[in-house]
Amino acid sequence: MTKYLIAIFLPFISPLGLFAQDNEKVPYVPTPIEVVDRMLEFAAPKKGDMVYDIGSGDGRIVIRAAKTYGVRGVGIEFDRRLVELSRAAAKNEGVAHLVEFRHQDAFKADISPATIVMLYMLPSFNKQLRPVLERQLKPGTRVVAHDYPIEGWQHAKWEEMPLMDTRPEVEPHNHILYLYHWNPSSK
To answer: Disulfide: which of 26, 75, 91, 109 matches 13 by Cβ 3.0-4.6 Å?
Structure first.
């Protein structure tokens, strides 16, 4: 199994968290803040957007979206400890009124209000999540995937960041971002 570890947009499910579908362990690996910022630039949040981060880990994407762009956000996270950490961080950053963190299984969560979805998950997770996205997202919803594309979807844009990830918990690599504009007719 590859040592590339993921989290959506970072973030993520803890090392003890399990996929609901196949019990595959998903590690918690925080997305570097430079990557978070570029993911948000890719998504181009604007007034009225609702950012959902699947596997939100410590909440950094949703919190950063609220602080930088003033948009609302929801983090979906399987690890209860990380949900509590995210809520405390949102309060500390003064954006608790804009964001919400839910302790939920991503495969059972209602993400239909999203206008932007962030992902930093393993390829197998993205593959399993794809039908959920296709069933729930409205046409035009922007989806940004970090490092791993959504199999079967055509990206509108991609970028290999010049930032080399040399953290010990991952294989050295440059971060790659994929932007999708959900359109049921262009799967």
So the answer is: 26
- What is the distance between the alpha carbons of residues 149 and 119, in angstroms, rounded to a whole number? 9
Strand 173-181 and strand 142-146: pairing?
A: antiparallel
- Domain span at residue 174 reads 33-186
Distances (CA, A) of 146 to 31, 36, 41: 9, 9, 13
For residue 37, the domain's CATH number is 3.40.50.150
Looking at the chain, the whole-number percentage of residues with pLDDT higher than 90 is 73
Please indicate, yes or no, if residue 39 is contained in any of the structural domains. Answer: yes
Establish if 77 belongs to a structural domain.
Answer: yes
Global pTM value? 0.84
Helical packing angle, 60-69 and 33-43, nearest 10°: 60
Position 51 in a domain: yes
- Amino acid 27: pLDDT: 76
Work out how many domains the chain is built from and give that number.
1
Question: Given this model, what pLDDT does residue 26 score?
Answer: 66
Residues of the chain where predicted confidence (pLDDT) is lower than 70: 1-26, 167, 186-187
- What pLDDT, on the 0 to 100 scale, is given for residue 1? 34
**Residues 157-173: b if buried by 16+ CB within 10 A, e if exposed:** eeeebeeebeeeebeee
Identify which of 84, 60, 72 has the alpha carbon closest to the alpha carbon of residue 7: 60
